[in-house]
Each structure stands twice: as C-alpha cells, then as structure tokens.
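Sequence in, structure out. Go.
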Amino acid sequence: MRRKGLLAGPSYVTGFALSKFAASVIKEEKKEERKRKRHQNNEKNGDLNGTGVIEGTESCIAEKKRVIAGDGGAITDGLQEISEGNKLEIFLDVDDDPGLDASGVETEWCLPTDTLVAVRLMCEQFPKLDQSSVRPFVLRSQIYSSVSNRTTADRELEELKQQQVLRAFKLNSGKDDFAVMLTDDYLKQIECAKQWIRSKRPEEDTAVFDWFRTHVISAQTGTSIRHSQLVHLLSQAGDVKDKQISLLINSGLLVRLLADESTYWFAIPSIGSLLKSLTQGRKELTSFLSRRRYKEIIQAVLEKKRLRTSQFDMRFHIRDLLGSGHIHLVNTPVGPLIRLSND
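Output:
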C-alpha cells in the first residue's frame, strides 16, 4: 500500500520532498541570490554596459559553478557532476543562464536544510480553513515527526530564526507547544492586523505597526520581549505612546504574560479558535484510538476519517501526535499502522 503524505522519517527528506518540492524551493532561492549578487556587483563595478556584465569579460566566461540538490539521479547531457554527500556540483555553459555575475562564477550556494524543506512542504499542505485569516504555520512537534533527529531539528530551527527565515511562537495550548511560521507570512499577518485596526478604529495611529515590523521583528528573533526593550526599539522610529502598544496587544501581535506583566509573547493574530481545534482534535483522535481493541489502525484508513471537533484535517493531527510521542508508526505488510503509545 502506498504511503500518503509526509509523516515521519528520512524517507520524506530524501525521497518525495527533495525530489519534487525542494526543486522549486532551490529555484526560487537561487533566483533571489543571483539578483542580490548582481546588485552588489553593479555597486562595486560602476562601469557596466547596461546588461549587468562588465564589457570585455563575455569572451572569458566559459562556465559557471552551481550547487543544486541531487540524490544521485540522472543528469542531463552536457553537464559534469561531482558528488559531495547529498549535493551535486554542476558545471554548465554561461549562455544557458542569463542571470550571471560579471565574473561568471557563482559562489557556493547551500542546500535548504531538512527542517526548512519540512516547514515549507507542510505549509504548502496546510489545511484550507474557512473564515480564518491565519497564514500557514506548523507545530514544532510536526517538524519532529519529519526530521528524525530532534537535536538537529532544534539546531536548524534556531539557525533559521537567527537568519530571519522563520519565526517561532509559544502557544498556550500546551507547555511544549510552539508554532513555526515563515517570516514572510508573519509580515503579511502584521499588515492584515494593521488593516483590521484601521477599519475598526480609523482615528487611531497605525504607524506603530510599521515600526513594529521594521524595528522590532528585525531585531528580536526570540519568542518574547521585555517592555523596556519593546519601547526602546519602537522609539527608533518615533515617540511611542502607551495606546500604540495597546494597539499591538489588541490586534493579537503581542500577549502580556500573566506571571510577568513587563514581558510580552510574540503572537499570531486570530489564532485563538485554531488552538481550540488543536486541543479538541488531539483529544478526539487519542480517544478514538484508545477505544479500539488493540489501540491501533492502518494509517491509510485513519486518514480518510474526519474529526468532528477540529478545523484541521486528520493528517495535521497525526503529524502532531507522532512528533509529541503520543502515537507511533509500525510498518506492516499492508502499510504503515498508527498505534497509541503507552503512557
């Protein structure tokens, strides 16, 4: 029986994801990298011929170096491959790619980490929710279900946070619950919150949302921030008033800690109803498995069922419970089997 979706183990990373989804990720990120390098080259070498290439260098450019994802598969004719672990260095003619630096050589480009590929893929598969403005996010436990080594996953998550590729948020649905969202998606959430406040209270000064996006998000990559630090960062753009900070709280971008009122959690606006679905869906799924004779069910059969108490689909909850250890996978001749773990 064919295994559906991304659930666990390195088979996802080396198989489906890197062969299909990661290809589009790599293409997008390499395109942005070329634009950035052409811009830096234009500033460094002011004498350009209008095409982004210094005059007189075209004849000297014979090939360029690119590093792309690969797993030992076939390479098209005319390309020379050099295997380096899970990477393939490919040399091809400059004429095949119009986006070149003046030197004709692109510096080594790193592959997306397993964690980043997992996050992007699960965001693509995020359930379509009615009447919800929340951008796609994944749970940290779901990442654990895809990246087998938790230490590696935690390290890569921290690196991606420092690089401002991802944002992490503490959730009040459980002591170990964290949501992870792409930074670009979170910036869109901030803009939506700004527009919502403007529609409800047009007389309020919404400039604080721009200050928050520009000065706070770029400087603070953690899950919380002190009140004094928040005021300091916002003050770089203008005079900060208490009512402006209240706007950030009312819009759902900040949550004040009950135990320490001088500290705020960064938050995802309008996520409250989804947290209710998360907790209720967990209870419904574990209760369903506990009532079965052997507390187990074939994965393909389980994925076809629908939860009555959750807006999320079954796959979302299976990944969550796999990563948290409440359930585990058992390989059988008829396909993967989901079994409730012994507490």
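Check: The mean pLDDT is 78. The CA atoms of residues 22 and 117 lie 6 Å apart.
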